[in-house]
Amino acid sequence: MSAVLFDGEKILADYALATPKDNLNHLLIMLEALIEPLLDKARDMKIKVKGIGIGAAGVIDFKKQIIAKNSPNLEILNKIKLASLLEEKEDLPVIMDNDANCFVRAESALGAGKKYNNIYGVTIGTGIGGGWWINNKIYYGASSGANEPGRFIMNMDAEEMADLETIYQKLTQHNLFKTAQEAYRGDILAEKVFNELGELFGIFLANIVNLIDPEVFIIGGGAAEASNLFIPKTKKIMKKHIMNPESRNTKILKSKLGTEAGAIGAALLIVRRDLQLLDQPSNDIVGNFLMIGGDIVALGAVKIGLADFKRVFAKSKSDLLDHSLGPQNPLRAAKTAKRGIGNTVGFKRLGF
Q: What is the pLDDT of residue 331?
């Protein structure tokens, strides 16, 4: 679990703790231990935190604000009312969303997608997630079940049908980081894996273009830092399978916000709520929150890439903050470190 303190212009501090996966009680204790130092920091700076945004892998029930299905790394959170539990613990409003939706929300407002209005974000790391940003909001679908690209069926000839994420996990043997390290060292088999991934993702992105025709793709998650290993192949295959000639040059961009993109997108749930721009399907919880004006400070929590949760505070008068963070390398070895970003006041950052 990792955290940053962000004031809308710069990251002021970051913090991290190990992520327990054994039971819910242990997880909630650690979440509180992660949040409290940043809440203390905010109080010291006379910043009022207005809410908590959570981004998590899986299908989100927006009315109940729970993970309804398929939290792949933290199964203990499935069907748990995490938003309500955090509200009770921290006495702050909480909004939850899918982590890939948080990623594309942040990139559209602050990152690589600032110039575009029709963006499809793809997170590739432990699993594969996606989010579609169109006309200044996330597209959720008729039943709030859109944006699960990892479940795209990509192989109909096998004895059992295989979806995108299953093939990806099989190719990387559930360890993208290790496979990338081997490829960079010149391992022929690892290089072959990324060549096959390039072809797989090329077909996948072509399917997206043929369906919704986005202006641009933005790639994030753990794979973003290894994108040079597969994106050239992806572009070639994608172009080959796109029907409309005018769509064949659809751009593929790397995340500009790096590993913090999902956390910032979670914080923007609170920012957009307070500006009455929240793009989630309507629900009673959000309706009760539309009342806060002035400076907006949000604490966001999100699972992205190889981490389990990311947290962020954001302070701004607008959800379109003119700020971007330099990309961080999710393939680096986990370690204990102190770091600064711009005018950052660093907290200790622990590896996973």
A: 41
